[in-house]
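User: Earlier you gave me the apo prediction for this protein. Now I'd like the version with zinc ion bound, so I can compare the two side by side. Same sequence as before, with the ligand SMILES added.
Assistant: Got it. Here's the input I'm using:
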Amino acid sequence: MTRKLSMERVRDLMVQRMDALRQSVDSTMCTLKVMDEKFADPFDQAVIEASNSVELKCRTNDWHALLEIKETILRIDRGLHGMCDLCGRQISQKRLRAAPMSKLCLECQKEKEAESRQRPKHGCLQGRMSLTHA
Ligand SMILES: [Zn+2]
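And here is the structure of the complex with zinc ion:
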């Protein structure tokens, strides 16, 4: 195992993941378009609407993942990858290997998680709403 994680390799990995996700997002959109027809049978309609909402939820998750991947690639290109967003310290190689998209060092991540546990999640809900209506 190499001691230092190669940025090129992480970037390649991110691009691969992005392509895979893009394909799945595209195919979901196609499925939605095909299904976006009115059916005479109310039972069919209900089944289709239910499956659409599942697809939409998947799509939202995919979009979220896509955004995160894009951000990681940008950070690599700008030479910011591997630096903590909050304290600016180097994120450990061990942590980056386990989670290449980390933006925070372990200490800051723990603090952030402790904070979000204390606070009600209004921001999170709002973010989700705007994604669904976009
Ligand atoms: Zn930090």
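For your comparison, keep in mind: The chain has five helices and no strands.
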